[in-house]
Amino acid sequence: MGTPPDEDGRETQEVLHTVAVTPFYMSRYEVTQAEWQRVMGHNPSQFQDCGPRCPVENVNWFEVQQFIRRLNADSQPGFRLPTEAEWEFAARRLSKAARPHHNFADRGAFHPLPQADLGKDEPVQMYGDVWEWTQSNYNPYPGFQPLAGAVGEYNGKFMCNQFVLRGGSCATPAGHVRASYRNFFPPDAQWQFSGVRLARDAATS
């Protein structure tokens, strides 16, 4: 997990390190506006004109937890947010053919798009469309050392009460996002470019 030292765009915080990941399943699709409406009884999305098959957005971390609790109560339990390690593991295993279909700012839509089935047994649109909440706190990786004399939030300013989001959005330049790139937001913050993809332990499926 993390970024090799020679990767373009690497940040000092992305220390390459080993993480043990137990078997899990990652949803093929982000939670849609229709699914959120069915479970929660309302649609908070800013881009509702996109349609019910578009990813739900404008949801904060606490709202996502409430959605998951209600979903688990109404269906087979076990759904949860992925950890950022699970997200990165799944993202790095995507086929090379999948990435051109992701909706970044370069595409010019500037809003999420309906999730298309590419006919592959892998997650769809993990990059672009909406940033995806994880259950991981925004903490420094093992072995991280700030650069001497440098300041800034990406050089050791790991703020408390922040959660990691992954994947970029429809407002993110394609070259800005990598599998290891970490965004972060406070859990009570609603943002029109934040959404959710679910995971579950393999043992609970």
List keywords for this structure.
205 residues, alpha+beta, paralog of FGE (formylglycine-generating enzyme), four-stranded mixed beta sheet, 3 helices
Explain this structure.
This protein has 205 residues and is α+β, with helices and mostly antiparallel strands. The protein has a single domain, classed as paralog of FGE (formylglycine-generating enzyme) (Alpha-Beta Complex). It is built from three helices and six strands; from the N terminus they run βαααβββββ. The chain has helices at 33-40, 61-74, 84-92; strands at residues 24-26, 131-137, 163-166, 183-185, 194-195, 199-201. The strands form two sheets. Strands 4-3-2-5 form a four-stranded mixed beta sheet. The longest helix has 14 residues, at 61-74. It starts with 23 loop residues before the first strand and ends with a strand.
Mind telling me the CATH class?
Alpha Beta
Number of helices: 3
Please write the string of helix (H) and strand (E) elements.
EHHHEEEEE
Evaluate the radius of gyration.
Answer: 17 Å
Q: Which residues sit in consecutive blocks of at least 5 with pLDDT less than 50?
A: none
Q: Tell me the overall shape.
A: globular
N- to C-terminal distance: 26 Å
Percent of residues in helices comes to: 10-25%
Label the CATH architecture: Alpha-Beta Complex
Mean pLDDT: 85
User: Beta-sheet strand percentage?
Assistant: 5-15%
The number of distinct β-strands equals 6
CATH topology: paralog of FGE (formylglycine-generating enzyme)
> In this structure, how is the largest beta sheet organized?
4 strands, mixed
